[in-house]
Amino acid sequence: LDGKPGNGFHINISVNANDGSDQLYHMIAGILSKVKEMTAFLNPTEESYKRFGVDKAPKYISWSSENRSQLIRIPAAVGEYRRAELRSPDPTANPYLAFALMIYAGLYGIENKLTMPEAADINLYKADSKTLANYKTLPNNLSSACAIATASDFIRSHIPTSILDIYCSK
């Protein structure tokens, strides 16, 4: 509904390495590096994009453990409860595809030992345009998200062409 907050489908994910090492930050870095490519599957309707950047739905590709305006938030939890929360998906997402892509992106980050960008410990909803210019954004609409997904080697290696066509060749 225009002018009303949309529903989020915040997905929490954690990592538990067999060797006891802390792989959470590599996993998050992987998700951040692939999130634009995954967005067509996390937000599969044109209406999905009306939430981004308003009413506490993220627009910028960022993370923080201190602020809820970020795309990925690390809640204050320790031990087995330590996790990351991806805040852009909405309830129209197919959870099987969303979870699979998040896992593949997280594994990509772990396998390549990606490092996370600097934390965005600010409220991006209240930040000035100069600050916001430092952040990449999620796609603005489904058409852009589909163009990014269709051109993505990552997506083509994990999503069958028939499924990609259903989502992006409507």
Strands, count: 4
Please outline the major beta sheet. Answer: 4 strands, mixed
Approximate helicity band: 25-40%
Radius of gyration: 15 Å
**How large is the count of helical segments?**
6
Give a description of the structure.
The protein has 6 helices and 4 strands. The protein is mainly alpha-helical and about 170 residues long. Strands 1-4-3-2 form a 4-stranded mixed β-sheet, covered by helices on one side. Helix 1 crosses helix 4. The chain is globular and about 45 Å long. About 35% of the residues are buried. The model has no long low-confidence stretch (mean pLDDT about 90).
Give the topology, please:
Layout lengths: L10 E3 L10 H19 L20 E2 L7 E2 L10 E3 L8 H17 L17 H4 L9 H9 L2 H6 L2 H8 L2
Parallel strand pairs: 2-3
Antiparallel strand pairs: 1-4, 3-4
Helix pairs in contact: 1-2, 1-4
List keywords for this structure.
about 170 residues; mainly alpha; four-stranded mixed β-sheet; 6 helices; about 35% helix; globular
Short summary of the structure?
Helix content is 37%, strand content 6%. With 170 residues, the protein is mainly alpha-helical. Strands 1-4-3-2 form a 4-stranded mixed β-sheet, with helices on one face.
